[in-house]
Amino acid sequence: MSIKIAATALSLLLSSWVSAQTTRASNDSTQLVGDVGLALYRTPAITRASGDANVLLPYAFADYGSLFARVDTFGVKLMPLGAGHLELAARVSFEGYKPLGTPGIQDRSTPLPVGLSTFQETPYGAFFVYGFYDTNSGGTLLDAMYAAEFKLGSIHIYPQLGFERRSDKYVQHLYGVSAQESAASGNTIAAYNATNSISPNLGFAFEYPLPNDYSLTLQVRKKWLDSSITDSPLVNSKSQLSSFLSLTRSFK
Predict the structure, then answer these.
(1) Which residues are bridge partners to 245 per DSSP?
(2) In this structure, how many other beta carbons lie within 10 angstroms of the beta carbon of residue 117?
(3) What is the pLDDT of residue 6?
(4) What pLDDT does 30 receive?
(5) Phi then psi for 155, rounded to 5 degrees?
(6) Distance (Å, rounded) from C-alpha 34 to C-alpha 198?
(7) What is the residue extent of each domain of the chain?
(8) Nearest 5 degrees, angle CA 72-CA 73-CA 76?
(9) Quick one: residue 95, left, alpha or beta (phi over 0 = left, psi -120 to 50 = alpha)?
(10) pLDDT of 1
(11) Are strands 140-147 and 155-166 parallel, antiparallel or unpaired?
């Protein structure tokens, strides 16, 4: 259910955003710049949960004036900072889930991360840093990534290296087990109090250009989960391999 709600919200937000920018572009000199289209996302659950790991959603990695969209993160640029800007950002999360085969365990609501960010585009590659506060759990999320670019024939390749730090409240909200839940399960699931986690990730994106400013992009990312997450009795995986395949049009 949480994925459906997040997917609907993302679809409406992107549709409204692109529609508004198309309308306003004829009235001023600000232009939509970047890639917009559709993508099939695959995010396998790391717990026994209901729901489909595959979801089709609008895709955007683009700017319109001070507004920006970066796949699952949206916001506004506040002021220049270094080789980029200081930004106010919000992220569409898919981490909420409905547990399966775990009586007594309550549904985990989807986090709602909001905070500050920056995108630094340098001659040596791009740096992304996001600092979020989750309004649901009261926890925090720090997401940092470096991305480079090189070409192999006509294909653009983007290696990516990063990490995510979640506070104990953030991890507990998703993967912790309270004493009450443990008792409701008949003590078949042990109580678990999570600590903060640091999970590194490595990804690659491959972009193949098509005629008329279209392109096809495949991205694959592997995240190695911290023991604070994997020690939870709700979690049944040591890592997570996510991906998306997008068809986009480039606006310049």
Answers:
(1) 40, 218
(2) 24
(3) 46
(4) 83
(5) -90, 130
(6) 31
(7) 2-251
(8) 150
(9) alpha
(10) 45
(11) antiparallel
Confidence at residue 29, expressed as pLDDT on a 0 to 100 scale = 60
Q: What is the pTM of this model?
A: 0.86
Q: Give the span between the Cα atoms of 93 and 75, in whole angstroms.
A: 15
Cα angle 96, 226, 60 (rounded to 5 degrees) comes to 50
Q: Say what the pLDDT of residue 20 is.
A: 47
- Please give, one letter per residue, the 3-state secondary structure of the chain: CHHHHHHHHHHHHHHHHHHHHHHHHCCCCCCEEEEEEEEEEECCCCECECCCCEEEEEEEEEEECCEEEECCEEEEEEEEECCEEEEEEEECCCCCECECCCCCCCCECCCCEEEEEEEEEECCEEEEEEEEEECCCCCEEEEEEEECCEEECCEEEEEEEEEEEECHHHHHHHHCECHHHHHHCCCCCCCECCCCEEEEEEEEEEEEEECCCEEEEEEEEEEECCHHHHCCCCECCCEEEEEEEEEEEEEC
CATH class of this structure's domain 2-251? mainly beta
Structure tokens at 239: 């890592």
Q: Which residues in the chain come in under a pLDDT of 70?
A: 1-29
For residues 111 and 139, what is the distance between their CA atoms, to the nearest angstrom?
A: 9
